[in-house]
Amino acid sequence: MKVLITGTSGFIGGALLRRCREAGWDVIGLGRRPLLEPGYQVRDLATPLHPVHLDFRPDVVVHAAARSSPWGTRHEYAVQNVKATENVCTFCKAFEDRNTVRSSSISGARRRSGFLASKNEKRSEHGGEQRGD
Questions:
Q1: With 0-12 CB in 10 A as exposed, 13-18 as middle and 19+ as buried, what is 87?
Q2: Measured between alpha carbons, how far is 47 from 70 in angstroms, rounded to an integer?
Q3: Given its phi and psi angles, is residue 7 left (phi above 0), alpha (psi -120 to 50 degrees) or beta?
Q4: Fewer CB within 10 Å, N- or C-terminus of the chain?
Q5: Do 62 and 8 form a contact (C-beta atoms < 8 A)?
Q6: Who's near 127: CB < 8 A, 6+ residues apart?
């Protein structure tokens, strides 16, 4: 199994990278910060990712990269979440038979109501969003 995982310099992506390696899978991890991990590459997903950049044809792509905290500018937040996700989706389209998994914190999702959850939204007791009146 060949797996490409984004966000491997983060908590979820990094744990998944290690678990896939333990399973004996061929894994490449991408992240924003430098790490000393085999198969890890520093990549800015805000720029297009082309298959030739990796020399790797994944069976599965797990997109776990996102800016999980709201500091920085609104533009940085949108680029590191929305644009990066668009670029990963475009990459996956180059491999029509690929499986893609998207995993992120709630802050990785763009809302119609604005930058983060609106004042009318609150966390449900199950961790999901709930619409208030």
A1: buried
A2: 21
A3: left
A4: C
A5: no
A6: none
Amino acid in position 10: G
Do 60 and 99 meet the contact criterion of CB atoms below 8 Å apart? yes
Encoded tokens for 73: 């500018």
104-127: pLDDT as tens digits? 555 444 444 444 443 344 433 334
Each residue's pLDDT tens digit, 34-59: 988 888 999 999 899 887 777 788 88
For each of the domains in the chain, give its residue range(s) and CATH number, in order of start: 2-131 (3.40.50.720)
Q: Can you give the length of the chain in residues?
A: 133
Q: Which residue shows structure tokens 């500091």?
A: 71
Q: How many Å apart are CA 102 and CA 62, to the nearest integer?
A: 6
| CA-wise closest residue to 104 among 82, 71, 125 | 82
Decide the pairing of beta strands 121-123 and 129-131.
antiparallel
Considering the entire predicted model, what is its pTM?
A: 0.72
Q: What's the pLDDT at 132? A: 39
